[in-house]
Amino acid sequence: MISSTSLFAPVDSDLRLLTDNLKRLISARHPILGAAAEHLFEAGGKRIRPAIVLLVARATMLEQEITARHRRLAEITEMIHTASLVHDDVVDEAELRRNVPTVNNLFDNRIAVLAGDFLFAQSSWYLANLDNLQVVKLLSEVIRDFAEGEIIQSLSRFDTSLSLAAYLDKSYYKTASLIANSAKAAAVLSDAPSTMIESMYDYGRDLGLAFQVVDDILDFTSPTETLGKPAGSDLVSGNITAPALFALEEQPLLQALIEREFSQEGDLEQALALVQTSDGIERARELANCHARLALQHLDCLKPSAARDSLAELTSYVLSRLY
Q: What is the pTM of this model?
């Protein structure tokens, strides 16, 4: 399996600088908010989203050094991502993320919601200070998409009539929007040609969709220790993802179990077994593969460089998490 460390070699020193800066940027006036936010940045995330911003910056600048605005955009991207995770954990009543206690578990829901709000507000302030209206619009759209994704997910719990298109829309709002719009914003800050800017958006969108589908597969196939949260937690909460959606087409009993919200003893175990014995996981893998291949094609507009190679390898890395 490709490691994210070797993958991000072209921006390794940029990412080290980013981690130091993030802790400095979020030092809040109130120590508890600062502690909550710092806990998140210490929680061992792979920094995939800011790495993509920095790689797109390097791939579109080539001979020139990336700018302070590119670096700040990468920091804003990680802040927005982290804020969304905090709110996600509150909504999902999660106790663990990356095998580390969540902010709502460590402090309480009220502090967690405020910590998330604080990070969104901080990111918006730094975003405004980039003085680039197009970039402000792109990243503001992401924050709106996160909220929309959460609302759609909450309203469609245990809804077995969810279509694949609606699932992909929700996956775009919750995951792909940030990757797509921040990659596009990095190209905007590089003054790249408009066709290249759009290709970076398309790359981020398809990579983000592949990433989310893989995450949804891992929820059925990975043990809790690997996942950093209980396996099958999506289905328990009524969040019907690609493997279950495909399984529903061939397992009528699964529909009944979901619709009665696993209210009888053994319902959940039976539902998980039905997904495992169906073609659902295999078909979800094909869906992830399809989006990863599309993401790779969108890089054709970039000239050869180490950063472009890393962006290309990322499409394989996302899929390699399955094996």
A: 0.92
